[in-house]
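Good morning C.,

I know you're traveling, so I'll keep this short. The sequence:
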Amino acid sequence: MGSLKNIVVWILISSSLFGAKITLERWEKGKTFSEYLTSKEISKEILNDISKADIQFLSEIEGDQIFYELKDSNDTLEQALIPIGEEMQIRLAKEHNSDVYSFDIIPIEYKEQEYSATVTIEQNLYTDVNNALHHPALADKIGQLFKGTVNARKFRKGDKVSFLYSQKTRMGQPHYMPYIKIAMIESHKKRQFIYADKDGYGYKSTKKSQAYTVKGKEKVIYTRRVPVKSTSSTFGMPLRHVRITSSFSHRRYHPILKRYRPHHGTDFGARRGTPLLAVNSGKVTFSGRKGGYGKVVKIKHPGGYESLYAHQSRIRVKRGQRVKKGQIIGYVGSTGRSTGPHLHFGMKKNGRWINPMQVLRKTSIKDTVLKKFTEYKDVTKTKYKKVVIKNAKENEEKILAYLKEESPPFMWDGYEQTSMRVEDGKTDQAL
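The tokens, ready to paste straight into the viewer:
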């Protein structure tokens, strides 16, 4: 993948690793960190040395996650780097001239670079982008950019699509998804810019509001209040009075440990004994103590969601119990690793931590909601939504400059590469 001469490989020891090999591995789904230690013939005593604050992150290793191993010429593991999110990683390292391993959590070192490319349509957009650049994820992102904005099926043979994108790389491999900043379509001697928002969706203009039409059948008859259960798919707040003291972050400076750690949740300030409310109906999957989280309740909800309520002073529900939205499941406390009474609230979607504030309703829980009932009538409405397109003019100039240069695009030829050799044992610290 590109040139490997500029890849800096830091390793923990400065000699005797000539000819060592770095391999790209995938974490088996369902495999625990303890099982990984056993597979590498590493003593499980290392688990006793891991702090309660860090032990919880062992369960956050994602299945099918790419990670790296460094082995010596005898195939002995010298170091492993296992991501726990986008910014942080577990480092397992063998000490010099010893069979003892150390454990730490450190930031992920990666590079981010901007690339430009032009693809001529021969078959279809996805196939042509993938064939030209050897980057399937990039082809997916191009499809996302055009969805709802440009009908890619109407591209004709010979049409050209140029785009500007950024890609994080680690060890020469793509690290997480690319981000397409802008695209330009050339068809019948006409040019059309497509601008990307922060989530990678495309728009034909940079106006602050974008118009879109909604078709359907509608006729208002009356409005009336209905029980809140009719809107059970929405999430309420875990406390009646909300005061956020620390937000969700992939990389936060920990106030107690004085180190960078992920903060996969939102902290709410509240007095000890304040009732904690289930944010939605569901089934309790855990009720008890959990390392640095102290007393914890976990609830599984429909749609692949799971909520977590940590540092409780007293728990009011049991494992296997079904709860309703707004039901009291415990009380605010300061158990576990905590600087004072508060609620650490976490939310997972399909097994991955997400920012809870993206799904929680910011209004208080109501017993009823006002609902509009409709009958059948064909209508077409024009609606508007605000869109922020950053650096649109700058990106236009960059892509036009790239077209004038006529330089060949970067090809991800080594996308499937899984290993490399370390030929210089004088490097120092981490992959």
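Safe travels,
E.
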